[in-house]
Structures are given as C-alpha cells and as structure tokens.
C-alpha cells in the first residue's frame, strides 16, 4: 500500500517495527501493586547488564510518576533531535540509554493528567520516534497494575521477549502480583520470572536480616503458579540513599547483599534463564523450561534469545 494511503497508526506501526527489529530482547518489568520497588529493580538490572557488556535501553512508561531519570542521576536532562523528527535517548553511559517523560516536563512537580488514549500515544511515540539504535536489551518500566500502559506495550511489541514481575513478600503484594502473571499468560507473553524485592531488611548495625514484610511469599507464589523464581533482594538503607542521589549501586554497593542479589538475577536473565510461555503449563517452572530446550518447544516462543 502506498504511503499516502496508509493512516497515521499504520505508519507508526512500521516505525515501531523498524526500531524494535534492531533490539535483541524486549523485557517488560511489571508489578501488581505500587511501592514494591519495580523501578529500583529496572534501574539496577539495567546497570548490571551494562556492566556485563550489554547495550541497554530503558523506557520509562510510568507517565504519572517517572522516576527512572532521578535514579540514573540524569534528572534535568532534556531531549534532543538530530533530524527534527525523531529524538535521541539520554545517555547514562556509552552502552546505557534512557527515555522518560520527565525529560519533557518543564516543571517536575506538575502532575500529568492524561486519559488512556494520550498515554497510549506517548508510549507508541517513545517506541517509534526514539533513535534507540542497536541494543541487546530494552527494559520497559511500567506503572503498577495491568492497564493501559502494559496493554499498549504488548500490542505495540507483539514479539515482546517476556515479563519480569516484581513483588514483596507480604500477602497483599503477592495477591496483586498473581494478576500480573495471569495478565502475561492471557497476552501470550513469556514470564521470565518473579523477583521478591524488600525480602528482609539488613540491619545497618548488626548485619542481621529482619523480615519486615515477611519472607518467601514470592517463592511460594511461583511454586503455586508454576513460574520461575529469579531471586530475593533484601532491603538496605544504603541502596535507598544511592538511588535518591542517582548513584550506580552496582559500583557503590559492590560489597552489599542487595547488590549481589541484583547481579545474580541479571546474570540469570542474560544467560537465558528458565521462562514460561503460558502455552503448555505441564512443564512451566521445571528444569525443562529454559531456552536451551527451545528446539523442542514452540517455534514462535517469544522467550527465545536472539
């Protein structure tokens, strides 16, 4: 069909397709409930993957609370364009880029009062008009829930590699995380795994762990729902302070338990961990469900690593 006969939506789909074809793995980070540290996980996984030599992009689709830029230490950066049409992501370091609505806001205290259609348009523009270039990973940070933002990502990127679901150990968080698991299955998206964040507080004085929110809720959910468990990340005061100051925890927190946990999870993801397609639940979460078994799995499994 000639370009003049195509509508704007179709043309944008082609632009998104061209951008995404240059990116290896596209991973959406989800949580059912807010406040479980999903952005913390996204930012730190991005830093760990970049340290491993991967080229990484981070897309912040939490349009009402875009905090990714602050955690990366690039708050206040502005977007630029090389051609006046597309725009360039903000470079955190040579192999790590980020796009966030916060870069386009003149007043960081101003609320973003948008309906669903406006949010869908912004996310599609981030995907199609941003010069991501060649990436090994695009990590997509989403707001809590299973609504407009998550649905837009799944529809715009039908070959989405998979989802990583973040929860805290207590029952109320796990209850909502289960909805994210079922959302992924209904959308036909692979579940790379579940992370239990804030899994105990490491006392800064004695080093002992205090299970403020309980312990093991995420792991039990994974066993019950037959999805992979990626690991537990303990709470640490130093991690919170590093994020507020925009410091890279993979460097400043090198000897801390939470940093080791994040490294182990990133290494698991980068080296092809078990993942569930949601298509054949008889093998989900078993040792047979992993990329090395893809040859005998469904040919269009989105968990297959490029």
Describe the structure.
The chain is of the alpha/beta class and 306 residues long. It has helices spanning 8-20, 38-51, 68-72, 116-129, 148-156, 171-186, 217-225, 237-244, 249-252, 257-270, and strands spanning 23-30, 56-60, 90-93, 96-99, 135-141, 162-167, 191-202, 209-210, 229-235. Strands 1, 2, 3, 4, 5, 6, 7, 8 and 9 form a 9-stranded mixed β-sheet that branches. The two termini are 30 Å apart.
Keywords:
single chain; 306 residues; 9 strands; disordered C terminus
Mean pLDDT: 85
Beta-strand percentage range = 15-25%
Low-confidence stretches: 276-306
One letter per element, helices H and strands E, the order comes to HEHEHEEHEHEHEEHEHHH
């Amino acid at each position: 069909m000639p370009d003049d006969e195509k509508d704007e939506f179709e043309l944008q789909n082609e632009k998104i397709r061209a951008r995404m074809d240059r990116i290896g793995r596209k991973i959406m980070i989800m949580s059912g409930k807010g406040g479980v540290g999903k952005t913390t996980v996204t930012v730190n996984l991005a830093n760990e993957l970049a340290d491993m030599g991967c080229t990484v992009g981070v897309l912040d689709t939490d349009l009402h609370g875009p905090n990714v830029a602050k955690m990366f230490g690039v708050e206040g950066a502005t977007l630029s364009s090389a051609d006046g049409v597309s725009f360039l992501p903000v470079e955190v370091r040579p192999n790590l880029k980020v796009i966030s609505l916060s870069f386009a806001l003149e007043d960081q205290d101003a609320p973003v009062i948008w309906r669903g259609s406006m949010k869908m348009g912004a996310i599609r523009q981030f995907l199609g008009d941003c010069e991501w270039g060649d990436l090994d990973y695009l990590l997509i940070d989403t707001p809590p829930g299973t609504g407009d933002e998550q649905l837009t990502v799944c529809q715009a990127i039908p070959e989405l590699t998979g989802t990583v679901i973040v929860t805290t150990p207590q029952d109320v968080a796990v209850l909502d995380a289960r909805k994210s698991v079922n959302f992924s299955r209904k959308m036909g998206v692979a579940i790379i795994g579940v992370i239990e964040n804030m899994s105990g507080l490491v006392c800064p004085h004695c080093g002992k762990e205090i299970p403020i929110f309980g312990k093991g809720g995420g792991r039990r959910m994974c066993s019950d729902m037959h999805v992979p468990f990626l690991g537990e990340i303990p709470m640490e005061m130093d991690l919170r302070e590093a994020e507020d100051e925009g410091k890279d925890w993979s460097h400043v927190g090198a000897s801390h338990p939470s940093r080791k946990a994040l490294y182990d999870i990133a290494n698991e993801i980068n080296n092809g961990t078990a993942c569930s397609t949601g298509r054949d639940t008889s093998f989900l979460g078993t040792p047979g469900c992993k990329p090395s078994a893809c040859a005998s799995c469904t040919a269009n499994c989105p968990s297959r690593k490029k």
